[in-house]
Amino acid sequence: MRLFRFIFVVPALAAAVLIAQERLDTTAMRNDFFAAFSGNVDASTRLIANSERMLAANPDHPQALAWHGLTLLATGAPDSRAPSDEQNAAIARFRKGVAELDRAVGLAPDDIEVRVLRGVAFRPISLQIPAPFSERMLEEARTDFQRIFDLEREQLNEIGTHPLGELLQALGDIYARQGKVEEAERYYRLIATKLAGTEYAVRAARWLETRQPLSPEQTGCVGCHVAARAD
Question: Mapping DSSP to helix (H, G, I), strand (E, B) and coil, where does residue 87 land?
Fold first, then answer.
């Protein structure tokens, strides 16, 4: 049975799917990512080192590729104030991170951890880059969250408030941003039904009233790393 257990970054989700190979320590990688995201250089170094150690033994290790790619993305955003050579290096790092996340999904399309890592990276990034790259990233995030939902469909009642809320919120937001109102409504109504009384339901009610994409502030993670909590 697949159940969400992996709490993650800006929006957050959880996951664990067992496959026949050694896996990285998801909890340790997650904790290091949060620390690295806050500027801890040692944590960033550990993320790269742990994923590269696994990739040295198995270049096709999907979770290691996904974590490595995610870390490159998080540390590869170009700074327009930096010298041109630093900007070019950051862009190359960013592109490599995208390619590694895409490859990880291609290697393990039903691994929820891999899907989570790409989806939670690509959805917010799609708000910050120009078309057509933004549309491509948003669509790939949609396929990630939709696949997770399809894999978890029969266990929705067993998933905790936070991971279920993040999953349904991500799908509602993506479909709304893509102009697919009927699909967006499906997931926002699921939130209203299954997560009544939570911050997710408040946001869903707002969308159901306006039927317009919510702002990034209204679709960000409701979890332990932000002020508001749903449970």
Answer: helix
